[in-house]
Amino acid sequence: MQGMRPITEAHVTELGLAVVEVAAADEQTAFAVQELLATQWAIAPADRTTHEPGEPGEPGVRLRCHLDLRQQATPA
Fold first, then answer.
1. Is the pLDDT assigned to residue 36 strictly greater than 90?
2. Model-level pTM?
3. E strands along the chain, which residues?
């Protein structure tokens, strides 16, 4: 799977916008962290995890999501 693209200025153009990269041992843990963040703030969630290039078969995944700290999460 292809690694993550670099974070650019476009991702954080305004105060209160953030990019969060989660590194975890497995997908279940990475998505649990994302879900925890989503309980507090508006989030553009990731739908998949990635492995870094050159690390096939190595344990660990990464997930990147985008937060808007200016907006609290909306109740489900």
1. yes
2. 0.72
3. 17-24, 41-44, 61-72
